[in-house]
Amino acid sequence: MPHTAVVILNFNGVKYLKQFLAGVCQHSIPYAEVWLADNASTDESVAYVQKEFPQVKIVVNDVNGGFAKGYNDALKKIRADYYVLLNSDVEVTANWIEPIINLMDSDPKIAACQPKILAYHQKEKFEYAGAAGGFIDKWGYPFCRGRVFFETETDEGQYNDTVDVFWASGAAMFVRANLYHQSGGLDDDFFAHMEEIDLCWRLKNMGYRIMVCPQSKVYHVGGGTLNAESPRKTYLNFRNNLYLLLKNGKPYDVMLRIYGRMVLDGVAGLRFLLRGDFTHFWAVIKGHFVFYSQIPKLLKKRNQLGKNVVNYSHTEMVDHSIVYAFFVKGSKTFKQIMK
């Protein structure tokens, strides 16, 4: 089997290391090395792993630069053919590595892949962060096979096929190491949230495939860094969604789509305001103003990335609005959305 490194990014997460690291080691070694990439934790995380799991290799980052910078800093020091970016709050299962590595090894055009991701606390349900593979609509709204907005489906085997998707979840992402570095890795400016969508979009524009392999299955707690009610998460999601649209969208309509998002985000902000959620309303406003201030920098990135673009058109980007389908037409599942 090609050399694989399972890399768990951690910041003050000793609770999850105590809960899940033993299972990761049990079901990964000897198929893969297990690494702890510690993001300058101030708890006992590093000391705990050193004492209880001497087989786990450790790299300690100088600062907590978030999910994106944390992985970029750590992966510069880890040599492997495949990286597995794994959240610390994920329970893996037996034989979770081999099916994906075998799939990726069969086609050098497969740049990244994810397992089926189910909810740890409701194991029959798909989990928000990735479910059975990610897609995106024309306005940049991400959704998944098994999850549309906050509606998650029960896993009844309806998404057990191995297929191409638009993005693979950063909660459990397998990625070719050479392509990770060649594409520039995760974008540090995202800090957290949607940086994996940005990476996958870049890889697809470069002509590579992103896939889901449901023969591999994991369970994700979710919300370990920022819960769904956090204004900080709202800010990052709205800002980063605009970032990835401007960086990666089709040249001839990217500004139209950003204008459309301005309108839709305005509606979302107004909805927060009418509900009395002033912190979330301000998070949307702040996300937009920070985006506007970063446009010159983002355009420079776009121009640089454009040198490696093979194709801007992807069938996994649906050419209609999931906002309209979900909130107006009442389409609550992936299959209904895709109709």
Mind sketching the topology for me?
Blueprint: E1 4-10, H1 14-28, E2 33-38, H2 45-52, E3 57-60, H3 66-75, E4 82-87, E5 90-92, H4 98-105, E6 110-119, E7 134-137, E8 142-144, E9 147-148, E10 151-152, E11 163-165, E12 172-176, H5 177-182, H6 195-205, E13 209-220, H7 231-248, H8 254-274, H9 278-293, H10 295-306, E14 317-318, H11 322-327, H12 334-338
Parallel strand pairs: 1-2, 1-4, 2-3, 6-13, 7-14
Antiparallel strand pairs: 4-12, 5-13, 6-12, 7-8, 9-10, 11-13
What would you note in describing this structure?
- This protein is α/β, with parallel strands linked by helices and 339 residues long.
- It is built from twelve helices and 14 strands.
- Helix content is 40%, strand content 20%.
- Strands 1, 2, 3, 4, 5, 6, 11, 12 and 13 form a nine-stranded mixed sheet that branches. Strands 8-7-14 form a three-stranded mixed sheet, with no helix packed on it. A two-stranded antiparallel ribbon has the order 9-10.
- β2, α2 and β3 form a beta-alpha-beta unit.
- α6 packs parallel to α7, α7 packs antiparallel against α8 and α7 runs parallel beside α9.
- The termini are far apart.
- 46% of the residues are buried.
CATH architecture of the largest domain: Alpha-Beta Complex
Strand content: 15-25%
Order of helices and strands: EHEHEHEEHEEEEEEEHHEHHHHEHH
Round the mean pLDDT to the nearest integer and report it: 95
- Could you name the CATH homologous superfamily of the largest domain? Spore Coat Polysaccharide Biosynthesis Protein SpsA, Chain A
How would the global form be characterised? globular
